[in-house]
Specification:
The longest helix is centred in the last third of the chain and has 33 residues. The strands form 3 sheets. A 7-stranded mixed beta sheet has the order 3-2-1-4-9-6-12, sandwiched between helices. It has a 4-stranded mixed beta sheet with strand order 5-13-7-8. The mean pLDDT is about 95. Helix content is about 45%, strand content about 25%. With about 260 residues, it is α/β, with parallel strands linked by helices. Helix 5 runs parallel beside helix 7 and helix 6 packs antiparallel against helix 7.
């Protein structure tokens, strides 16, 4: 039977981590990489595994690649601290790995998100398939500052069971991430040489709302779907607004 290591990247996740790690205690190895939490995250992690590494933050992709280098199992399952592996998913993964062929590099799974206490089944969020279980020798992570990707060599197969994602328990938590992620996204845009354009920013913002709320039936998710669609559109606007701000600051510096 192939062995499985689970990796989790953390920073101040004391509210989420206990349930996350409890849902994957069955794994052969748990590896937690912490970015210098100042709450009880590290203390909680060490109750579940001796493989807890605290290191300076150098981006999501770099942290996950470091975690990957610490793993000793044949297969890797990476999850976020606000995600949970259900018993049905555990069973399905175990059955799939028993008979997996050598040309299979990974497995995709649907992810069901809970936003403001409601399961979001529309807005383009579900099934939102993600590749989270993969052969260690076949994958690594890209090193973007935000929205890093798993780079996998080989074919993937689909799993049916949902990975549960408790993404935002309240709006205060959502906007705390919102501010951090839009700043990182603006920084990446700037490094790629993107330029701010008022018309395109407005069009991208409106399109994001229309796509999520109308075309992808976000209205069927009730008030939570409306809030999510508007907030996501605002996210697009804000990251380009921050790009404009960075460009203004660069011009002032060069003047």
């Amino acid at each position: 039977m192939p062995t499985v290591s689970v990796i989790v990247i953390t920073k101040n996740e004391e509210q989420n981590l206990r349930e996350c790690l409890a849902s994957v205690q069955w794994a052969d190895e748990l590896v937690v990489v912490d970015a210098g939490s100042d709450d009880r995250t590290v203390e909680i992690a060490r109750k579940f595994t001796p493989h807890v590494h605290v290191r300076p933050w150098d981006g999501y992709g770099a942290a996950k690649n470091f975690a990957l280098s610490c793993c000793t199992s044949d297969w890797i399952l990476w999850i976020d601290a606000d995600e949970r592996v259900t018993e049905s998913m555990r069973t399905e993964m175990a059955e799939s790995l028993k008979s997996v062929s050598d040309d299979v590099a990974g497995f995709t799974m649907p992810r069901l998100a809970n936003f403001l206490g409601r399961w979001i089944r529309h807005c383009g969020w579900y099934p939102g398939r993600v590749t989270r279980l993969f052969r260690k020798t076949a994958g690594r992570f890209s090193e973007e500052r935000v929205h890093e990707r798993l780079l996998l060599e080989g074919q993937t197969l689909p799993l049916k069971s949902d990975l549960l994602h408790f993404t935002d328990r309240d709006l205060a938590h959502y906007f705390e991430k919102y501010n951090r992620y839009t700043s990182l996204a603006a920084e990446e845009l700037s490094e790629r040489g993107a330029r701010f354009g008022a018309c395109m920013t407005i069009l991208r913002t409106l399109w994001t709302f229309l796509r999520m709320y109308i075309l992808r039936l976000g209205f069927l998710d009730g008030t939570a779907g409306l809030i999510l669609s508007v907030s996501s559109a605002s996210y697009v606007f804000t990251k380009y607004a921050k790009l404009w701000e960075r460009q203004q600051q660069q011009r002032e510096t060069q003047a």
